[in-house]
Protein 1
Amino acid sequence: MKTAKLAKFYRIDDGKQFRLKDFDPADTGRWHSVEQAKEHLLKDVARLEDLQSKLYAQDRWAVLLIFQAMDAAGKDGTIKHVMSGVNPQGCQVYSFKVPSEAELQHDFLWRTTQHLPERGHIGIFNRSYYEEVLVVRVHPRSLENEKLPAPLLTRNIWEERFEDIRGFERHMARSGTVIRKFFLHLSKKEQKRRFLARLEEPEKNWKFSAADIHEREYWDDYQKAYEDVIRNTASKHAPWYVIPADNKWFTHLAVSAAIVETLEELSLAYPKVDAAKRKELQAARQTLMKK
Ligand code: AMP
Ligand code: MG
């Protein structure tokens, strides 16, 4: 079975009609098991390695992959899997945490710009500026911390942030940064199972955080916020992928397929050597051969 069309199924280019309930977190398409998918998982990782090497050599496009999800949806594992074949020199991962004092002295996109990937590189955001319309929306206290002048704190703030995000992403696209956004869509039931595993299995204990249990109580608010985010910020140049996350192997398969598809659309190739450069190479060869 081919993965070529797999990712397209989960891709949202235009969010107007988007409903989260139309997407099943346990969906695995026509795939049934990790055994069946294994060969493709490996193939996509190898394909990615080759494409990334060309992206780096060409040094024109930059690629930004954004990962957002509820806790325990598998962001870390997916990033690890997908990037397992990629040369670390051409790749940077950045995890966005609760903003620092210094970051809170600036606008909400300020810290983002400092971590954007350079040309030829793949940048991965583990969480991102989307937290500003997710956790900050679900917990009004976070917004208070941002020290915005009172007249700017209106009911329109989320609409305004969506508009600013759309503008920012359009600007990045026009500058040669290809943005792809992944929402790893986990069910509440599977989250419970994974939290329990973190409590019960010693080697998973370190991953457990009491704060995660607290956030789980806001599950419905988060789902609503995610739906609104996708409805308002999915676009052709910066689409969302709503990836089923109840089965990790399928998450990895679908995300790899989406990234491979994205890089393939860029028609990447190693730079061609012109006549002058060829002459230079020849001269270098002759010099080397003499000694
Ligand atoms: P983790 O990814 O588990 O290390 O946790 C990072 C935490 O930082 C999560 O609880 C996020 O919701 C939180 N966080 C990330 N960005 C922001 C933000 N802009 N405002 C408030 N909290 C944030
Ligand atoms: Mg966490």
Protein 2
Amino acid sequence: MKDNTTVQGAVHQDLKHDSAIKQVQGRAEYTDDIAEPAGTLHAYLGASNVAHAKIRGMDLSRVRSAPGVVDVLTADDIPGVNDVSPTGKHDEPVFPTEKVEFHGQPLFAVIAETRDAARRAAELAEMDYDILPHALDPVSAHEAGMPLVTDPLKLERGDVDGAFGGVAHRIQAQMTVGGQDHMYLEGHIAFAIPGEDDDVIVHCSTQHPSEAQHMVAHVLGVPSNAVVVNVRRMGGGFGGKESQMNLFCAVAALGAKKLGRAVKIRPDRDQDMTATGKRHDFVIDYDLGFDDEGRIQAVEGQFAARCGWTSDLSGPVTDRALFHADNAYYYPNVRLTSRPQKTNTVSNTAFRGFGGPQGVIAAERMIEEIAYALGKDPLEVRKANFYGEAGDGRTLTPYHQEVEDNVIGRIVEELEDSADYQARRKAILDENAKGGIIRRGIALTPVKFGISFTATWYNQAGALIHVYNDGSIHLNHGGTEMGQGLNTKVAQVVAEAFQVDFDRIKITKTTTEKVPNTSATAASSGSDLNGMAALDAAEQIKERLVTFAAESRGVSEDAVSFAPNRVVIGDESVAFDAFIKEAYMARVHLSAAGFYKTPKIHWDRAAGKGRPFYYYAYGASCSEVAIDTLTGEYRVERTDILHDVGKSLNPILDKGQVEGAFIQGMGWLTTEELWWDDKGALRTHAPSTYKIPLASDRPRIFNTNLADWSENREMTIKRSKAVGEPPFMLGISVFEALSMAVASVADYRECPRLDAPATPERVLMAVERLKASQ
Ligand code: MTE
Ligand code: HPA
Ligand code: MOS
């Protein structure tokens, strides 16, 4: 191998995603590309066409006799537990037995010789229902007396009621924030291959292989050691595959074990969108008190979420909404409550930001309220309310964690400068004052995002490294690759540790056989957790190598070091491969399992107090938009971003994450609208009706920079910070800029109170409303 003076592809270097070339050439393998064994069968879900009903009877005879059908699976075929609830609440049957609780709910699975035959047969069930009343949104469900899916959370600090008594200004209002479909390119898929005894192997597209393994085991009624779950890569997950894959894995495994043949299940896009959960939409009631300078004095917020028919991850999602309802702002007196509302809709789930964005946007709405009430630039109000520095009495969050690493002031100041915010805002105000049809808006919004799973036990990871006797390295860890570049980053950490080139390290599929009891690759924690676990494994092997080197040459261990692709032992320098061969011959153990758990964190949910987050990631974006006041159409003229990823493991990948997250966040708040009809059917279930941003919707000018001076003050992997989710909330600057453009038609005297998504229709209606109120 090479004998370089530097390591190619160590940490802090720009390195392309390890699969990038394979992906553009179509050579990267996804679950559906795995060669199918002879006799592979295909499953398809039969779904309900009512939103809420008692099941009186289910006649599947026409399904069973349809051409190509081999079997039909119902709840009766489940040998173990009929449940795939990720939190152990036992509220999510694979197939229902008594009630249908949403339109599109899976009722049974057809297994046929071809996918097409299964799909056609799935339409042929004859259902006998007693129709029950349904409620689709959190407000009507609450009014109808429907229960919550899980316990609500309350966060409180200060004397809220007392403070409201003395505020100079008070505003009470409501905001509706829409949900979002994940729109991963590769949809859900599971492919189960039966083995001897109870064994089954499931290849699938999940962010959480261990959970899928445990669910399959429960459903089959076998121990977890009989089930192997494998994930080479996903074509995107975005949170949509954190728990929602469980059902597909269970169905494929059930079929495979019952029939003794491989079974694959892959819903089409329409079924993927109707049968699997999305981002939670929220209805937020806020009560806000502030002084004449625009400083917040008191906040009360109620966050009602459309959770759907089961709890799924709605507890931690609504918790995270509250954890982020302060965004970057200090609230002296605050009370926040969640209402995880059951509704007759698909069970909503994780989606990039995990409830955080819905909290942050409420904070930003309150800032706007203050700015319009006092006639100030919203940026001035933002700055007046930022968290402070240690010792100034403005660092305590509503959940009683101290903000110790605040860099939002510097981020915003630098971005304000580089984006030329003040001059551009002035020019826009002057231009709008001329009263044209096209109005512009500009907004600079901050993000502070807490890093760690709020379920503290999730903050652990494992890794397994083998060094083969030819010097090649096999790397495995518990994280999954969904396009974010996790495998590339973890391999960089290992390359750095051994001082070998990146291409010496083989990146392998995630499998429950190699690293057990892993957490979901979620909460942006993939490289923080798995990077550390891999480093631990590498350090163990290095230690043994150092001991061997010192003993074999009779030098002290201090005289042994790892140089690029070589090992230096005293005066001697040996090529890495040759040294590994030597170590092997001397019977040195060249394999290690690494482990990591995040320090310092704890959380007492009942008390609403603790340190749920190891640290915060920060960022800010500045967007300028132009709207057409006659049609409501708009475009993003320019966006500037400055984002904090600490000391980046891989700046070019991190920049990609920041840009992608911004666009996805912008889509959530602008064009992506979920719409249910009065029967409870989701009518936006394909790209024809559900509009994600296109390449042509990106900002005309798009400048993204990382805060290269930032370094995590906590001992994270190479002092980096998580990047996956925080920049999603940078998209809020587009929403706030739209708001300013709308406000111009009423001379900025009224807060436009745009609901999200601000589709062109909503923008137009807001323009009309503000014009009429003049
Ligand atoms: N980037 C790509 N390309 N595809 C994805 O599915 N998911 C996001 C983010 N970036 C996602 C992505 C979400 S929701 C999370 S939590 C993180 O990646 C997870 O990966 P990480 O922890 O390794 O950053
Ligand atoms: N973030 C993302 N996924 C999760 C979390 C979280 O905080 N908790 C459980 N799953
Ligand atoms: Mo990301 S929503 O935590 O998978």
Protein 3
Amino acid sequence: MLEELKKIEINAREALESADSEDALQHWHSKRLGRKSALMGVFNSMSKLTKEERPEVGRRANEVKMALEAVYEEKVAALKRATIQASLENEILDVTLPGRARARGRLHPITQTMRKIQSIFAEMGFQVYRSREVETDEYNFELLNFPKHHPARDMQDTYYTTKPGVILRTHTSPGQIHAMREYTPDPIRVILPGMCYRYEQVTTRAEMQFTQVEGLAVGQNITFGDLKGTLTDFARRFFGQSVRSRFRASYFPFTEPSAEMDIECFVCGGEGCSVCKHTGWLEILGSGMVHPTVLRNGGYDPEEFSGFAFGMGPERLTMLRHGITDIRYFWRNDLRFLEQF
Ligand code: DAH
């Protein structure tokens, strides 16, 4: 029996030498020290030994068991150390390196301007009214008091579809007719933002595609004073409380009277510079009292109702605010430009 114990120990130690993974060690442990191991067999057969043999065999069996447990624990610890060492050597991580900054997206400068305009008018009680970009000649011109062959049509040449009379809108003004026809006879206070198209010679100041924000208020007793008050307040909120503004008589077929609004040049403070072309003023929008014919086309009786309207170009406002000299930057998708906003 003692001889057998010696053999068990030697075999086990030898087998442990070649166990060099966690799995192999586990396997070794259950084979050499588990319930069905040869060593446990010795413990189980103690009862068959004589009284004299028993203490000696028992002591030796315990010694072998403890010795094997000890070399096993040692081997497990050694393996763990080796694993950590290997990972330190192979997976080099310098925690003192600065992190890689993640590029953040941003809103297009025109979207930013659109949102600013929308939130200013929202505070004044205007709602956003969405209108179509593909229009009919009737809505884009006719109902806005531009009859066929009217000279004002010359300033807004457009793109035509293959369907006669269906065109891309040249301005957001046709949305006025849609809004009026939908809401009549209720009062209206809306802005209409969106994309417009013109068949234009593309230059630093003109693009074939651009945005506009239209405004329309219709109701009883709406006066030119309401128009001036609303737009003056808008200019202060958009450009700063101290900005000075003025209205100049103008002409649009769908408003009477009509006016263009200027703000004092904030580059030179009114002295005259290249941005304001030495006038001291910058034009920012067109406006006027809704023409009686347009009110009628929208379903409102001009004897009972009146209204004002205005239209502005977010590209132009953005150019003025940031001193941008070429309108073509906006839709060219050059990140070097867009990332500046
Ligand atoms: N639709 C005009 C344009 O694109 C701008 C405009 C002027 C709109 C006066 C208006 C307005 O509503 O009252 O040139």
